[in-house]
Design brief:
The protein has helices at residues 2-21, 24-44, 46-54, 59-69, 77-90, 95-99, 104-115. It is an all-alpha fold. It comes from Actinidia chinensis var. chinensis (Chinese soft-hair kiwi).
């Protein structure tokens, strides 16, 4: 676990370095790969999920949460961040640490409600008439 934690910290430092000096296209591609990589790590086992949560002084989890809360075109980064968070939140050993982060619940709710398909007024169906006498 110690090696995984160290690797996560190195990955986070690399991410910060690249993001500070790269153009938007490079940042987007790199962010997608990092989010997918974190999701794959989180899928592996509990000790790796614990390492992700503790990496970078909670910076990795905060980045995942901020990423899911961003609305707009993100080239799949949001979906991969959500996948990583799903693994973390499903693990009872780290869920409290993830959900206890500042703004975690509002960010997750923003993601959930923004991801819901929008109903059009024309296509909506009035179910009330089924319950009228």
């Amino acid at each position: 676990m110690k090696q995984t934690g160290m690797a996560s910290a190195v990955l986070w430092k690399s991410l910060r370095s690249v993001l500070s000096s790269a153009n938007h296209e490079v940042r987007s591609g790199f962010e997608f790969r990092v989010a997918a990589f974190l999701a794959d790590i989180a899928a592996a086992n509990g000790s790796r999920r614990a390492a992700i949560v503790s990496a970078g002084g909670d910076a990795v989890v905060d980045w995942l949460l901020e990423t899911v809360a961003v609305l707009g075109d993100n080239n799949g980064t949001q979906a991969e961040a959500a996948r990583a968070l799903a693994y973390l939140i499903a693990d009872p050993n780290v869920a409290e640490a993830v959900l206890g982060r500042p703004h975690a619940v509002p960010y997750l709710l923003r993601f959930i409600f923004a991801s819901q398909p929008q109903r059009s007024k024309k296509a909506s169906f009035d179910f009330d008439f089924l319950f009228q006498n």
